[in-house]
From TrEMBL:
Lineage: Bacteria, Bacillati, Bacillota, Clostridia, Peptostreptococcales
The family this protein is said to belong to: Belongs to the class-I pyridoxal-phosphate-dependent aminotransferase family.
Designated name of the protein: Aromatic-amino-acid transaminase
Organism: Geosporobacter subterraneus DSM 17957
Subunit structure of this chain's protein: Homodimer.
GO molecular function list: identical protein binding; pyridoxal phosphate binding; transaminase activity
InterPro entries: Aminotransferase_I/II_large, Asp_trans, PyrdxlP-dep_Trfase, PyrdxlP-dep_Trfase_major, PyrdxlP-dep_Trfase_small
Entry cofactors: pyridoxal 5'-phosphate
Amino acid sequence: MSTNFSMVAAHSRRPAGEDNIFAINNAAQQAAKVHGADKVVNASVGALLDDDGKLSILPSVIELLKSLPAVEYAAYAPIAGLPSFLEASKKAVFRDQMPEGYIEAIATPGGSGAIRHTIWNYSNGGDYILTPDWYWGPYKTIAEEHGRAIATYTLFDEKDQFNLQSFADKVEELLKKQDQLVILLNSPANNPTGYSLTNEEWEAVLNYLKKEASSPEKKITLFVDIAYIDFAGETNECRSFMKQFGGLPENILTIMAFSMSKGYTLYGMRCGAMICVSANKAVAEEFKAVNQFSNRGVWSNGTRPAMTVLAQIFESPQLLTQVEKERNTLQQMLSERAEVFLENARKANLKICPYKAGFFITIPCSNPEAVTKELQKDLIFAVPMGKGIRFAVCSVPKDQCAIVPEKLAQAIAKFE
Ligand SMILES: Cc1ncc(COP(=O)(O)O)c(C=O)c1O
């Protein structure tokens, strides 16, 4: 029998292989069994862990979930999502920074589901989807799964700020080739760099898009991935850029991706929403209809108990305060780890991408595969990416964050 024999359709033939991040995590766990967990730095996990390596949770959220009556678990949710959840998700996304315009929401299985529907419904087959050169790997997977490809611009300029020129050049180039353009922008607390665009940078991005949108046949969808927003700083300050999404031309549609994975520590419940902002009522109504149809056509409906939890949190000021109090403790733990890492990176002269907040710090380097292998000799497990190494401060205790930069600097020097 031929080993090359394949049963799948041509468009689904892909090389088999384990997910890189999960493979490194497995290797770290194996090393922990051999050498002891305290000797191993496992910086591969993209979830917030406490200092003992256990998943950090918000107790009030889990209690709420556990207190729901059986019927809440058993029953379907409406295809578009529970109406009370959809209202709550708008509040969770915008808080006091709601932009002007028509705003509609559709429940999706996490932010991932929102990415899927946006790519499918707002770009054409064969189109390029635009994202920066530092991006979350599944953007490419989701694009390719749906017959699209990823195009990238350079995220940082020589001053380590948002590279507007590179962004603009790429938008212009793509809009010469295609009429629909989906732009995936993960900010604040970008994965993998920890960068957050400033309000001025957002303004520059939108001004440029408005210029491109002066041709009415061009349709631009700006997908704002805020997966890490609840760990990106003060609630309303880190959302202050959102008001700028009001009053845009009708051929620029903003879609915000809401996720309960990180901000509510409900990764496994697969709950989130996509929320549109448009100056045109018909565009918002079409958004609702089209994405509800896609829900039915892909996964039917979402996870009802998680939806009910969010609705209850935003219906009770006391509950919301409690959730925020617990989350602040986690945010504090995360910022302390990042600060220690940054401080030691400065001491070791280690160049890192401009980090402002979030789960990851990225170290640009020319030979990431070799450097991560070298680090494994010291039982440090980080993830090689195209142009650098992703270190998950979210999953590494503070004392370990302190010792890693020096080791990283040494390992990089070896291969330069
Ligand atoms: C940048 C980014 N966007 C979106 C997501 C989506 O997460 P979920 O589908 O669990 O909401 C993640 C999760 O790791 C992420 O890192």
